[in-house]
Write a structure and sequence with these properties.
By secondary structure, this protein is an alpha+beta fold. Helices cover 60% and strands 8% of the residues. It is built from 25 helices and 13 strands. The strands form 4 sheets. Strands 1, 2, 9, 10 and 11 form a 5-stranded antiparallel sheet that branches. Strands 4-7-3-8 form a 4-stranded antiparallel sheet, sandwiched between helices. The longest helix is centred in the first third of the chain and has 65 residues.
């Protein structure tokens, strides 16, 4: 039914894949529950059906398959956990699956749970062992450093004791303390017993640690610190920290409690220490043996963990793909509604008409593979709803379609600007970027992306690189057209060449070599292609190129705007909108060509005849004094009469656009709604098209004539003013082409040639480097971006506003490939 209707409305024109979007239909599927999962899975592989959400009024937790989605979400979480662990271990998932492709989801859920539990246990044991290892390593450092403290203190005490004894046996002198005998004879039980604590404190906190200890104990402690040469792994945080070994002596339990609290506050770790030298050596040996055992155990655990992660990585992509697929299937099943018997699921969605047979085959295959007693039923529905827009593109045309879609997605089956943008966009870019040397540079850069296309498409790229890679064929055409226009302008990095023939002009004598065309005589045939190289470097180069490029810009602009208006005719013809043909297309063509079409004709006549007429004067006085004699500005006989007729037609075209259409729309509305409120099903699609093309005025019972008239008034004023402003906007082609040429000339003359004139190798090398950097940075990057944006504006505003509605919405079929991209 859909194919017959579209063919009838399309007329005798042959179908084009890209000129108009694919014919779409709204279909209904009735799927038995037992084959629903497999059916949706096959439709996801087909990627030609866009499901509608029939449960929009329900929350995600109230839908039929909420528990299955939760299960898929949990499996996805476990896979993300595995990916994080592999990333920490320096492993990457393998893209080559080593297992069979048919993996059961239930078995996978159990397997992922077991692997997660095993990996969590391995991580916990590894962290505990690593913490114990770090503590023992710190303990060994403390034993050595504090042992050195005690050994040094004991050596000093022994030396002092020997000095005292030698003085005692050597006789008393006047310096001998009078009370020494009494001190030595004092009761040993009255001596003060000192306690001590030792450990490690972070080096950045050691100064504050010492100060707080002194203040808290009022100076009644003795603190000794020593730096650890290398950073140690902190047992608590697992990070590398520079620490100091400390040994603090104190007296009394009260001071000890204060010191313990201060150690806890500063994150200092304390370790036990025995004063006995023999036990110290024994403890160091025991700690060393224990460290070796822990090191061996940790290495074995890491090896086992790495093997486990490597096995997971071999199957990770397959598992991840399966989980994403299951999640997408159940998410789509949640968009389906249960029928009253709760034995079938009902789905609605959009699909291209050409895909009907493929969808039916997928439904039949799903019914056979799931051993269902009955198959799914597919039937088309009639609707007034606006269908989605779907264009079948390839890797070349997709980038141009994206350029158009960035402005607005085409309304269903209206003319697609991308067909013409494929040629006009790179050409208008090249008009502004015309230099075949720069074009070759762009071409070589683009060929890198095209030659290594498979490699780049299979890896993750940066934002800028990915955008450039996606538009590689756009840049390819831009570079080819730039070479073509560069050959026309005869510019190779601003240098002209006699590529196709010698110059048609030569100097009459030596006096004409002072950068002027005065004295040049034509000695040969006209230069066959492009600009004669003799123009470059002359005084009249700039005036000549300004005149040439300005007139060329007007010709290109008027041609493209006429193309846009002609496409509005084909839209009206396709949708059978006679009103738009007679009261939009025809007056717009008359108005535009009466003024700017006539200007284009004058430009061509002036070029062909070599006339010296002033076109500015002709166009200005065509409005100010249309009846005056043209005099020397007359280009052809009867020009005055032609101008009067064209001016009259332009004035008539304005009310022609403004007045009839609102009254005819009102009459059409009254005839449609006279005596009945319903329309036949067979005409529903035609009615939809009339409604959409009349800007929705027929959807309401009441016809708002004032709104329609104001809308038409705005549209008329916009077109009349736009005809002037849009034509002037195309002069950017001339301005940017001139700027590009002059910048290139400045870089060549003021950098490269200036450096060459010094006859110095170093200056020449520096000049070449500056020239290359300026050419790449300014001309090949900034100028490319500038010309690209201006070409984009000319297509979006000046071209597409003549016919393009751009108020449609894209066709997003259910596809596992798209679901994977969204998940990433």
């Amino acid at each position: 039914m859909g194919e017959r209707v579209v063919a009838g409305r399309g007329g005798c024109w042959p179908p084009m894949d890209l000129m108009r979007s694919e014919a779409m239909q709204l279909v209904q599927l009735i799927i038995p529950i037992e084959s629903a999962h497999l059916t949706v899975s096959y439709l996801g592989d087909l990627a030609l059906l866009q499901f509608k959400d029939l449960n929009a009024d329900k929350s995600p937790f109230q839908r039929t398959y909420a528990s299955q989605l939760k299960k898929c979400g949990e499996m996805a979480r476990k896979l993300r956990f595995f990916k994080e662990q592999m990333s920490k271990a320096g492993l990457t998932p393998s893209f080559k699956s080593v297992t069979a492709p048919d993996v059961n989801v239930d078995d996978l859920e159990v397997k992922l749970g077991d692997l997660e539990a095993e990996l969590v246990e391995i991580n916990a044991n590894g962290e505990k062992l690593q913490r114990d290892y770090s503590e023992l390593l710190e303990y060994k450092i403390v034993l050595r450093k504090v042992g050195e403290f005690f050994h040094l203190a004991q050596s000093r005490a022994t030396q002092q004791q020997r000095e005292i004894e030698s003085e005692h046996y050597g006789g008393e002198s006047i310096d001998t303390p009078l009370l020494r005998d009494q001190e030595m004879a004092a009761d040993l039980s009255k001596q003060i017993k000192l306690g001590f604590l030792c450990g490690l404190v972070p080096r950045d906190k050691s100064v504050a640690f010492e100060r707080i200890l002194f203040r808290a104990t009022r100076g009644n402690v003795f603190l000794k610190q020593a730096e650890v040469e290398q950073a140690v792994t902190d047992p608590t945080s697992g990070e590398q920290v520079e620490k100091n070994v400390f040994l603090v002596f104190f007296s009394g339990d009260r001071a000890k409690n204060k010191i313990l609290k201060i150690c806890e506050a500063f994150g200092a770790t304390r370790y036990a220490f025995n004063e006995d030298l023999g036990k110290q050596a024994q403890m160091i040996d025991e700690v060393t043996v224990r460290l070796d055992e822990l090191k061996t155990t940790i290495d074995v655990g890491l090896h086992h963990r790495r093997n486990l992660l490597r096995n997971i990585g071999d199957q990770f992509e397959q598992w991840s793909r399966l989980v994403r697929k299951e999640k997408a299937v159940y998410h789509t099943l949640n968009m389906l509604s249960l029928d009253v018997t709760k034995k079938c699921l009902v789905a609605e969605g959009w699909c291209p008409v050409f895909a009907t047979k493929q969808i039916q085959d997928a439904l039949q295959r799903a019914a056979n593979d799931s051993n269902a007693q009955i198959g799914a039923i597919l039937q088309a529905l009639h609707t007034k709803e606006l269908p989605p827009t779907y264009f079948r593109t390839n890797k070349v045309t997709s980038a141009f379609q994206e350029i158009v879609d960035a402005y607005g997605v085409a309304r269903y089956q209206e003319a697609n600007p991308a067909v013409f943008t494929i040629v006009t966009f790179p050409f208008l870019f090249a008009v502004m970027f015309g230099d075949w040397g720069h074009g070759i540079c762009l071409l070589l850069a683009t060929l890198v992306y095209i030659v290594r296309e498979k490699k780049f498409s299979g890896q993750k790229l940066g934002d800028i690189t990915e955008m450039t890679f996606g538009g590689r064929y756009v840049i390819l055409l831009m570079s080819l057209f730039s070479i073509y226009t560069g050959l026309i302008y005869n510019e190779f990095f601003s240098v002209p060449f006699e590529l196709f023939a010698p110059s048609a002009y030569a100097c009459r004598d030596f006096s004409c070599s002072d950068a002027t065309t005065a004295g040049l005589i034509k000695v040969g045939e006209t230069y066959p292609f492009g600009l004669d190289p003799v123009w470059h470097g002359t005084r009249s180069e700039l005036p000549f190129l300004n005149s040439l490029k300005m007139k060329m810009s007007i010709l290109l602009g008027v041609a493209q705007m006429n193309l846009g208006i002609i496409l509005s005719y084909f839209n009206a013809k396709f949708f059978r909108n006679i009103i738009n043909i007679w009261f939009q297309f025809i007056p717009q063509m008359i108005f535009l060509n009466s003024l700017f079409g006539y200007l284009s004709l004058l430009i061509l006549v002036k070029w062909c005849t070599g006339s010296q007429a002033d076109l500015y004067h002709v166009m200005i006085y065509m409005f100010l004094s249309p009846t005056d004699d043209l005099g020397e500005n007359q280009l052809f006989p009867g020009q005055k009469t032609v101008q009067l007729v064209l001016l009259f037609l332009a004035l008539v075209a304005v009310p022609w656009m403004l007045l009839p259409k609102p009254f005819l729309l009102k009459k059409q509305h009254e005839e449609r709604h006279r005596g009945h409120s319903y329309v036949q099903l067979e005409t529903s699609e035609d009615t939809f098209q009339l409604e959409t093309n009349d800007h929705g005025t027929h959807e309401h019972e009441e016809f708002e004539f004032s709104e329609v008239f104001v809308h038409q008034l705005i549209h008329t004023i916009e077109f009349v003013l736009g005809a002037v402003s849009n034509t002037a906007s195309y002069l950017r082609l001339w301005a940017l082409s001139l700027a590009h040429s002059e910048l290139s000339s400045v870089f060549y003359d003021k950098v490269l040639r200036l450096a060459w004139g010094y006859n110095n190798v170093i200056i020449l090398i520096v000049g070449i480097v500056i020239f290359v950097c300026a050419t790449v940075g300014v001309l090949l990057v900034m100028e490319t971006l500038s010309a690209f944006l201006h070409a984009l504006r000319l297509h979006w505003v000046e071209f597409q506003n003549k016919f393009y509605e751009g108020d449609g919405y894209k066709f997003y079929p259910f596809s596992f490939a798209l679901a994977g991209d969204e998940e990433e």
